[in-house]
Each structure stands twice: as structure tokens, then as C-alpha cells.
């Protein structure tokens, strides 16, 4: 979910009453409150759209993970057959593919976990926005009732809106603090060092393949 959208949700949930006070001075508080309610409804639609994307990504990652796991199991049977036939070349290829699968599985697991966390967060945003909408609808109804009962809509409206604003100010800006992000700092490595690291990784990978092949032969 983009930071811009999350901040927008925070603004809608935590504030918006100062604009209503200004509107009250212009004798249009009801129109502004109605527009604020419509803005909340639009934000709900945006969050729901974002939630749909997250759910789709989560589904694809879960499906890919299941496919990878099934492929890993299928290769086990093929490895046994290759060792039985003395085809070390085929066994090594199968082991290499299994190692690639094993490297991808944790990434898929993390993707699913991240999507689940985003799903929960977005559902919480929707619930908060809907609660805010109900609150504002009640405040609008209260304002209308006060205007009708007193016959002095401007004074009653201004008083109610000032009270609402004071209550809103007490809530602070905790939402924005929660939505803060940290930036990771990565050190750079020169080309020669990267080449050496790549060679070391290849050597380690080949050794692991040889170890697995030896273990398969030992269990033959």
C-alpha cells in the first residue's frame, strides 16, 4: 500500500474538522460535511482496490509455493532412478534444480507472510474509515437536529463544530507515526570482490551437489 494512500486514510480518520469550522463561517457546514463523507467513501473504494491486489498476489505466491513443493518431491523419485542407472550427470542436474527450489521457497513464504500482514492492515483501514463515516453521519444528523430545534443554525452549528474540533485535536497524529518507514543503508562492493564472492558461491554450490549425490549413492 502506498504511503500516500495510508497517510490519506490517517488524515480522514483523525481529522478534517478544521475545514468544517471554516465552512460554518461561510454558512455551508452541511455541504462540507457531506463532501467529507463522500471523500471517505472514495478512500474506502481505493483501499478495497489495493486489498484486491494484495489478495491476488498472495494467491499467486501460495500457488507457486505449492507447485515448487510438488516439483521438489517429484525430483526425489527421479534422483533415485538416476542413481540406480549410474547416471550421475542426471542426478547432479536434479539436485541442482532441487537446490534452486529450496532457495525460492523462503522468498515465497515471506511474500505470503507480507501479503497477509498487508491484508490485515488494509482491512483495518477499511473498518476505521467506515467507523469514521458513521461518526460523521451522526455528527451531521446532530447538527441538523440542533439547527431545527434552536432556530439558530449558525450559532448551534458553530458551537457543535468547535466542540468536535477540540475533540479531534486531542487524538493527535498517532496514525502517521505508526505508518513511518525506515530506509535500509547498503554498503557498496567493488567488481573484483563481487567476482570473488560469485566464484566462492559457485564452489560452495558444487560441493553441496557432490555431497547430496554421495549421500544418495550411500543410501542406494
Describe the structure.
- The protein is mostly helical and 220 residues long.
- It contains 7 helices and no strands.
- Mean pLDDT is 76; it is low at 167-189.
Topology readout:
Layout: H1 3-14, H2 17-25, H3 29-84, H4 88-150, H5 153-170, H6 174-178, H7 191-218
Helix pairs in contact: 1-3, 1-4, 2-3, 2-5, 3-4, 4-5, 4-7
Number of helices: 7
State the major sheet: none
Q: What string, H for helix and E for strand, traces the elements in order? A: HHHHHHH
Mean pLDDT, to the nearest integer, reads 76
Strand content: under 5%
Provide the structure class.
mainly alpha
Task: Using brief descriptors, characterize the structure shown.
0% strand, mainly alpha, 220 residues, 7 helices, elongated
Amino acid at each position: 500500500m502506498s504511503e500516500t494512500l495510508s497517510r490519506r486514510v490517517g488524515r480522514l480518520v483523525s481529522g478534517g474538522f478544521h475545514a468544517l469550522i471554516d465552512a460554518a463561517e461561510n454558512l455551508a457546514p452541511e455541504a462540507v460535511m457531506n463532501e467529507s463523507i463522500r471523500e471517505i467513501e472514495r478512500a474506502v473504494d481505493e483501499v478495497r482496490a489495493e486489498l484486491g491486489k494484495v489478495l491476488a498476489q498472495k494467491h499467486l505466491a501460495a500457488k507457486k509455493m505449492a507447485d515448487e513443493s510438488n516439483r521438489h518431491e517429484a525430483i526425489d523419485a527421479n534422483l533415485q532412478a538416476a542413481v540406480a542407472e549410474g547416471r550421475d550427470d542426471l542426478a547432479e542436474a536434479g539436485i541442482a534444480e532441487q537446490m534452486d527450489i529450496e532457495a525460492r521457497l523462503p522468498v515465497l513464504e515471506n511474500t505470503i507472510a507480507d501479503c497477509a500482514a498487508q491484508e490485515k492492515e488494509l482491512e483495518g483501514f477499511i473498518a476505521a474509515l467506515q467507523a469514521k463515516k458513521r461518526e460523521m453521519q451522526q455528527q451531521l444528523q446532530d447538527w441538523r437536529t440542533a439547527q431545527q430545534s434552536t432556530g439558530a443554525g449558525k450559532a448551534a452549528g458553530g458551537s457543535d463544530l468547535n466542540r468536535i474540533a477540540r475533540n479531534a485535536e486531542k487524538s493527535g497524529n498517532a496514525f502517521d507515526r505508526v505508518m513511518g518507514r525506515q530506509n535500509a543503508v547498503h554498503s557498496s562492493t567493488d567488481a573484483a570482490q563481487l567476482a570473488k564472492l560469485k566464484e566462492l558461491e559457485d564452489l560452495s554450490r558444487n560441493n553441496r551437489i557432490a555431497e547430496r549425490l554421495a549421500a544418495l549413492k550411500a543410501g542406494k
